[in-house]
């Protein structure tokens, strides 16, 4: 099924020496204009915990914070990429959620992406780290910034209580399909809580079965029902969640595609996606991207980005092994 182990592009670098790397970065930033490709050569070839060790070694050797030094040396998209690489994954998630919530207009897509694709354990850690970083609970911030059924969906996901087994029950799937049909199309006004309850708590294998049953019962897809019954943020939220349940790699491939399509690149999305998936499943995502869009992820980035920023993203997609 969908549970083969995931394929990252970045693994811990085998002959790792944090002091040598710190020294190389120091040299790359000495003198006029830093050697950006040298910086990428080090940081895009190491795993996140190795980058943390490099930062530690840098501080010991040079008495300066590596992140601060990068900020003063770099700018624009390259700076954003490098600083994202230097953040621990859970802090990067917290940071991105906070930015999505506190910016002008909530970036629903970021909330959906993070809250639907992290494990229960990751969500629990994320809530703790968010609280430490922003002195406010993630749940409170979500409630303060969203409303209605979309808020309820996010609060449900925020509990990190999804069944993570692969246990399936076809009778229950059939009953739930009927329940969803009654809550949606059979009813004047939709009972969102029913969708919420089923989609936010059951395991992915079971939900795929529910979707199959739904199609048998109604003769059309659950997506079509949601398109017809919901609008706005909750519609996007449920459709994102369903995409992710049906095929997580396909969901991420589409998010990457969307970050680069049309005029101008949504660099915040592109950076977050590449960085956050590089040590999880980016190799799988790149494969699906190629099948889906008949173009390699690497070529898409080459066509859309330039300079050292482009080289850094490509290094992460190519990987270090």
From TrEMBL:
It comes from Panagrolaimus davidi. Keywords: Annexin, Calcium, Calcium/phospholipid-binding, Repeat. A pair of annexin repeats may form one binding site for calcium and phospholipid. GO terms for molecular function: calcium ion binding; calcium-dependent phospholipid binding; phosphatidylserine binding; phospholipase inhibitor activity. The keyword 4Fe-4S does not apply. The keyword Calcium applies. This is Annexin. Gene3D superfamilies: Annexin (1.10.220.10). Belongs to the annexin family. GO terms for cellular component: cytoplasm; nucleus; plasma membrane; vesicle membrane. SMART domains: ANX.
